[in-house]
């Protein structure tokens, strides 16, 4: 998967989906202060970039979860990539809402029937894993066997690794924080001082300070 990892890391940087601001950190929805912000929703606007992503995700799934029966997308950012991957692999697809509908049948998943089926979930990025793990639990309750999770990008945070371990769920990422930072250095997007800041943040984002 190295070629796809390097290509996608460079693609994300080239289109501005990843932004670095070590001197003036971003604030995530969780409240975490971060010197990096990733918006993989931008990728759907670039045909070649999204093609590299879905081909890479499809190859990753075939390599790691070759007995998958259904491809699932986590709302909302994982849905378009799941659609392209399911088409590439000729597999049925579902998507999973963040919570059940409050009307109609009250469903949280839409698409193929998943009871008794082997599902791989796709999300755009993994930080602590909260949203995708909630999605996995929701479809497990519907009788599906969740083989694992794949994402475009992972921050490689220890909290995320712990959460997936506790959930007894495997996850794989097309490209990672360390690969993306390496690509940024090679492109000249980061200097050594900024690299140190990024490394310190990743080791303990909840307690990180400038």
UniProtKB/TrEMBL annotation:
Q: Which PANTHER family match?
A: OROTATE PHOSPHORIBOSYLTRANSFERASE, URIDINE 5'-MONOPHOSPHATE SYNTHASE
Stated name of the protein = Orotate phosphoribosyltransferase
The record's section on Gene3D superfamilies has: 3.40.50.2020
Instruction: Show the catalytic activity.
Output: orotidine 5'-phosphate + diphosphate = orotate + 5-phospho-alpha-D-ribose 1-diphosphate
One Pfam assignment: Pribosyltran
Q: Which organism is it from?
A: Leuconostoc gelidum subsp. gelidum
The record's top EC class is transferase
Oligomer status and interactors: Homodimer.
Q: What does this protein do?
A: Catalyzes the transfer of a ribosyl phosphate group from 5-phosphoribose 1-diphosphate to orotate, leading to the formation of orotidine monophosphate (OMP).
Which cofactors must be present for this protein to function?
Mg(2+)
């Amino acid at each position: 998967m190295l070629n796809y990892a390097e290509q996608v890391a460079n693609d994300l940087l080239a289109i501005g989906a990843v932004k670095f601001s070590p001197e003036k950190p971003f604030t995530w929805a969780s409240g975490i202060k971060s010197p990096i912000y990733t918006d993989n929703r931008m990728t759907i606007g670039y045909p070649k970039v999204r093609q590299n992503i879905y081909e890479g995700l499809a190859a990753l799934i075939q390599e790691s979860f070759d007995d998958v029966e259904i491809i699932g997308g986590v709302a909302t950012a994982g849905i378009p990539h799941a659609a392209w991957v399911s088409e590439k692999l000729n597999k049925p697809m579902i998507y999973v809402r963040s919570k059940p509908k409050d009307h109609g049948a009250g469903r949280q998943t839409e698409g193929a029937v998943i009871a008794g089926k082997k599902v791989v979930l796709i999300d755009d990025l993994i930080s602590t894993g909260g949203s995708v793990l909630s999605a996995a639990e929701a479809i497990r309750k519907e009788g599906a066997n969740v083989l694992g999770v794949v994402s475009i990008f992972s921050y490689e945070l220890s909290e995320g690794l712990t959460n997936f371990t506790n959930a007894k769920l495997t996850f794989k990422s097309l490209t990672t924080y360390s690969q993306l930072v390496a690509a940024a250095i090679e492109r000249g997007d980061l200097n050594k001082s900024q690299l140190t800041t990024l490394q310190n943040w990743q080791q303990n984002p909840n307690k990180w300070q400038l």
